[in-house]
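User: For my dataset I need records formatted as: sequence, then structure tokens, nothing else. Please produce one.
Assistant:
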Amino acid sequence: MSLLSFYQENIVEAGCDEAGRGCYAGPVFAAAVILPADFFHPLLNDSKQVKEAHRNELRLLIEEQSIAFAVAKVDVEEIDQINILKASFKAMHLAVDALKIKPQFLLIDGNRFIKYKQIPHQCFVKGDGRFASIAAASILAKTWRDEYMLQLHEQFPHYNWKKNKGYGTEEHRKAIEQFGLCIHHRKSFNIQPVQQQLF
């Protein structure tokens, strides 16, 4: 199924998505993207369905050909203070705020969102597999976050974030049990290896 170019014709739409919401470690990233109506790439899809090499290729194309794009993050400290859902919404707000062109409508991946200023929005479950602008946002959020986690990996190689990107793989859980938590872990997450380290 090919992606839809827009939800409503003749208005400026921005697609929004986040990456890293379910991770044990690292910030949550979000992107907002305004694409030209004729933008097309056969590999563009939900970032989870796209190979890493293709994601990186698409990132360059999206950043080059989009009308406007922005990527933002909310760090672990704030995630722990306000919770991951609110942090995800805040990251999207920050991304929209950083767009050089103000959109008239927001297409949001997921089933919930906190309204951004006076801009109307619509939520779409699995929207990153339905609309090109949301798919593009998912690619940018994912690739920017992965790049950031590779940098953190250099400081804390024993968690192997270059491979798991902070997600709760068995390897990551065992590393937490062995080495404990570091400053980049989300202490508020109700997950067994994290909670064991806190109590």
